[in-house]
Design a protein that fits this description.
It is a single chain. It is built from one helix and 31 strands. Strand 15 and strand 16 form a beta hairpin. The chain has one domain: YVTN repeat-like/Quinoprotein amine dehydrogenase (Methylamine Dehydrogenase, Chain H, 7 Propeller). By secondary structure, it is mainly beta. The strands form eight sheets. The chain has a five-stranded antiparallel sheet, with no helix packed on it.
Length: about 400
């Protein structure tokens, strides 16, 4: 279904051949210009993640590969399944996708799965997060084996210069690195109780995430030393910042700084420049959208801001529930980084279908924007096609694509 939107149109694309898969977490743009998608099955037992491909030129979706069986973990083997590639679908300039699996899908026949309840269960436990590459040209994976045992990987970043992955595990919240050429996995320890859902990289390959209170943690690219900086994600004056862990981060179009939001209660946006001074400068851009006095802290999950992506117009796009309106729908919003003016683009409502949650976003090389949907079966994504987008001239290239989930 296609609806009108501000300065363009928006399409709802469901992955109908996967009727029980209920969320799309991983979403990225490959060096070939195609959109790669991780369709996940986290609420129904006995499902494993699929990798799909969307071709912008033909507007066709392709179902490429089911990952669980390729890893030697068929979804009917009694284990908690390899049900997701969370924010761990990363494109490389070599054409490969660098990936790690994640947990939450129950074993076949079980209604629900919790890691602690089955940690020592010899049948239902989750074996761990597999690290692997996927080659779209051959439709094959190269399996590097399990990195974090009994845990999933919730976020991933790829330092291609060093052929090095940075990851965060769930549920124990450990920070790790994986050196691809030597197949070396190093656990750098636990970073807190609340699980950040993003890692981002500066131009030198240093990695950044946050602790439980939103303080920036910097992992040195050369020696893997993790240091807490004095900079933290913004929060309201009556709070200390607990739960303000990273939720989504994108580079500015010129890669001079980063725009982000946190998995906290404030629904703020911020701009962070790590290149100023010893620790960088954090700028609070205020409430992502809506009345300043609207209390988004009444529900952590309902008002999350995610799906950050820059458009060809230089504006920052994101998705958010507008809880102060009736009906309370999720919208795509855009922000002008220079003026900080916000505008509504479109509600994510298509007849009886309403978006439950936006997980990820990316752009194709022509200026169209893609937003991954989560929480409904069959899962799918939304495609925003601005009227200024062209199918003849490429406005983005691989250098504009972030190297993290």
């Amino acid at each position: 279904m296609i609806n009108k939107a501000l300065d363009g149109e928006i399409e709802d694309l469901r992955f109908d051949k996967l009727p029980r898969h209920d969320s799309t977490w991983g979403l990225c743009t490959g060096i070939d210009g195609n959109i790669y998608i991780a369709a996940c099955g986290e609420m129904t037992g006995g499902l494993s993640v699929f990798i799909l491909r969307y071709i912008p030129e033909t507007k066709k979706i392709e179902y490429l590969i089911e990952i669980g069986p390729e890893l030697g973990e068929p979804p009917d083997n009694g284990h908690a399944t390899q049900s997701k590639i969370h924010y761990c679908l990363i494109p490389g300039s070599d054409g490969l996708l660098y990936c790690a699996t994640h947990a939450s899908g129950p074993p076949l026949g079980d209604p629900i799965w919790r890691p602690w309840n089955s940690w020592d269960d010899t049948k239902r436990y989750f074996p761990g997060s597999y690290i692997f590459t996927y080659n779209p040209l051959t439709n094959k994976i190269e399996n590097f084996g399990i990195g974090p045992k009994k845990e999933g990987s919730r976020a991933l970043a790829f330092d291609e210069k060093r052929m090095k992955l940075y990851g965060i595990t769930w549920p124990r919240n450990h920070f790790y690195v994986f050196y691809i050429n030597s197949r070396t996995y190093i656990d750098l320890g636990r970073i807190g109780e609340i699980n950040p859902q993003a890692i981002f990289l500066d131009k030198y390959g240093n990695a950044y995430t946050t602790d439980d209170y939103g303080y920036i943690l910097k992992c040195n690219a050369d020696n893997n030393e993790i240091k807490q900086l004095g900079v933290k994600c913004p929060h309201e004056s009556y709070r200390q910042g607990w739960h303000n862990v990273l939720y989504d981060v994108v580079p500015a179009p010129d890669w001079s700084c980063f725009y982000g939001t946190d998995w906290g209660y404030e629904s703020h946006l911020w701009r962070y420049n790590p290149y100023i001074g010893q620790e960088g400068i954090m700028e609070d851009l205020g409430r992502a959208f809506g009345p300043a006095d609207f209390k988004t802290d009444m529900s952590l999950e309902a008002y999350q801001v995610r799906g950050l992506v820059f458009g060809m117009d230089g504006n920052l796009y994101f998705a958010m529930k507008l809880g102060w309106e009736e009906p309370q729908n999720r919208w795509i919003i855009r922000l002008n980084p220079k003026t900080l003016i916000r505008e509504k683009v479109c509600p994510l409502v298509f007849g009886e279908h309403k978006s439950g949650h936006i997980a990820s976003a990316t752009q194709d090389f022509y200026g169209n924007l893609y937003f991954a949907d989560a929480g409904q079966s069959p899962t799918g994504m939304y495609i925003y096609r601005p009227s200024i987008a062209s199918m003849n001239k490429k406005v983005f290239s691989f250098k504009d694509i972030k190297q993290w989930g």
